[in-house]
Here is the input.
Amino acid sequence: DEYSAEVFDTQITTTKVNAIYNMHTYWSKKPHEAIRQYIRHYTKPHDIVLDPFCGSGSTALAALIEGRTVVAIDRSPAATFITKNYCSPVTPDELNAAFERLRQLVASELS
Here is the structure.
């Protein structure tokens, strides 16, 4: 298997101020927009990206957005839970239905 890639020497400019990043944030988390640039440079569409320390799923999300297949693992069950839910697509209709179910469950407490 032959692999060759030039060094990534482009300055990355991105922000941590976006809805996806803010869904689950902590001090050392990197924005998925920055990671996407590395994924794009070092892999091709449909390549497999291994993230053996998936943490909160930023690399997995970046790879999925870029059309790669992802294997995301972590020793921490919390990390794999966060990554799975961070990377699972939800349609607006599904989200609205879940919200309505929740609203009905707590309706008496809200009023």
